[in-house]
Amino acid sequence: MQIKMFMKIIFAGIVSFFLLSILCLFYYNIPVHYSSETGATDYVWEKNKYYVRAGEGFSYGKTDSNGYNNLNIPNQVDILLMGSSQAEGFNVLQDENTAARLNKLLENKLSVYNIGVSGHTFAVCLSNLENAIKAFKPKKYIIIETQAFMTETELNNLCNNSIEEIPSSNVGITAQLQKLDYLRLLYSQYQSYTASRTKNNISVKENNSGDMKLYEEKLNQVLEKAQKLAEEASCELIVFMDDSLKKNENGIVLLRQEDQYYDIYKKVCEKNNIIFVDMYNPFAELYSLTYRLPHGFSNTRVGMGHLNKYGHEVIANTIFEIIKEKEEI
After folding, report:
1. 277 φ, ψ to 5°?
2. What is the mean pLDDT of the chain?
3. 148 near 121, Cβ under 8 Å?
4. Are strands 251-254 and 245-248 parallel, antiparallel or unpaired?
5. Helices 309-327/98-106 angle, 10° precision
6. Of 54, 191, 208, 253, which has the most beta carbons under 10 Å away?
7. Alpha carbon 238 to chain centroid distance?
8. What are phi and psi of 102, to 5 degrees?
């Protein structure tokens, strides 16, 4: 009797897992990631793979033959876009992300290629910059997205060329388990929970000693190197800060607790002839005109999380205006 009951439980579990996996095909079906062969990013997604995401926003599309989120691969890359999941744009339709919108605005006069990948912070992008330039040979501009200031630890690691690579488990049993969408969903929920608990790298104040002069010197060292790499490739470097706006009962509040770091970034970028774009004013204008926030979705928390289609549109328009003035297009 006990054996029969045990077998029923096992069977019910298998059927439940099977049904949940089918559901995930339409809810959370994302590619598996593999270590990058070029080093332009720490990893790439499975190539030519269809994806669906409906847990935060709703999106579907297909990764390109390099494993990145682009509608197509241009014959020549004029503008290379690097960044985290914000630049990657897996939370909006593929033709609504920053790169796709910017390509449309440029009307084939210049081509944009997006290698933004989840987890790739500003520090990781800078550490991969040389390999990214070698792999994709941008002709005009390199754009790097960041949503947070680097900590002293990240700056020290960059100065010492010791940024830790984001691991990619693409061999053995782990690689096979990654292909099960329901297990991937559970793991992603676990990661979100642990991230909210630890709050790593959310506030520079929590991680830095407060020596602003030393911070500025180290930032100058790493950005000077980045600018030199861009110059050698005959490119201009653009860094844009994708900040968050939060609505409260009194209006909107920018989640900007460390204003001095904005001043330092702007100062150091100007010193090294890097274009620094602070998205606060464009985002604030979006809200004042339309009452829309650039982050968040109706199926999550409005104003929090990843960029929505309005945020991507504002960023694309802002960068387009900069490029249009420089290129006279």
Report:
1. -115, 110
2. 86
3. yes
4. antiparallel
5. 40
6. 208
7. 15
8. -65, -40
Question: What single string gives the DSSP state of each residue in 185-246?
Answer: HHHHHHHHHHHHHH-TTS-HHHH--S-HHHHHHHHHHHHHHHHHHHHHTT-EEEEEE---EE
In contact, 294 and 283? CB cutoff 8 Å: yes
Domains in the chain, number: 1
What CATH number corresponds to the domain at position 236? Answer: 3.40.50.1110
**Is 163:154 a contact under the CB 8 Å cutoff?**
yes
- Phi then psi dihedrals of residue 306, to 5 deg: -85, 165
Q: Rounded mean pLDDT of 114-132? A: 96
Cα 214 to Cα 13: distance, rounded to the nearest angstrom: 57
Contact 155, 222 (CB under 8 A): yes
Contacts of residue 309, defined as CB under 8 A and 6 or more positions apart, other chains included, come to 92, 93, 96
Range of the domain at 249: 2-327
User: pTM value?
Assistant: 0.89
Is residue 256 within 8 Å of residue 161, measured between CB atoms? Answer: no
137: left (phi over 0), alpha (psi -120 to 50) or beta: left
A 10 A CB-CB count for 23 gives 14
Task: Find the mean pLDDT for residues 276-283.
Answer: 92
d(CA 320, CA 318) in angstroms, rounded, equals: 5
User: Under DSSP, is residue 123 helix (H, G, I), strand (E, B) or coil?
Assistant: helix
What does the pLDDT look like over 146-192, one tens digit per residue?
988 898 999 999 999 889 888 776 666 666 666 677 667 666 666 66
